[in-house]
Amino acid sequence: MEVVTGHLAELPCLSSDDYHMFMFWKLKDDSHTIGPENPLDENKYNYEVLTGKLYIRVSMAESGFYKCISRGIKDKSAININVVKLIVKKDIQVLVENSFETNLLRGMTIIMVIVVGIAIILLIIMLKQKRAQQSFLDVLEESRENSPEKCIENLYSISANPSTITSQFDGSDNVGFDVDFPKVFHQMQKEQTI
Length: 194
Prior knowledge:
alpha+beta
């Protein structure tokens, strides 16, 4: 039977049957007896008188072989002995809590999570600053293009080279720049004479 430390182990007395009655338990070292008129640590050991079932609040020290001894009901000289092996295992939670390697791994994991979190936050901040700076540069460039000096330069370049008027304003809403007024005026005079 396997039990975790700190739990209650129930050892069945298989020697107690229809022909044999439970007498006592011999503990693993045969120096201690648990049964009627043989009280041992009652907080640690308890038993059922009729079935002989032994209850043990286990620690690592309780691992070993336990003997249940029963006597014959009709023939008092008939003794029946059953041996139960008790294996006590450490509680995995206690083992993990007390393990240096496990605690070291936990600490390193926590530190790595914090470092990765800080790196992600810094990356987000840098990207936001870059976008803000880029949009500021775009606004600055746009304001430079629409500055009064640029408008004056464009005006001077248009007046210096009139052929660029049609190419610069081609397709715009102001069609007046594309019209040759003398030609239109001449066409209107012809129509009136006819």
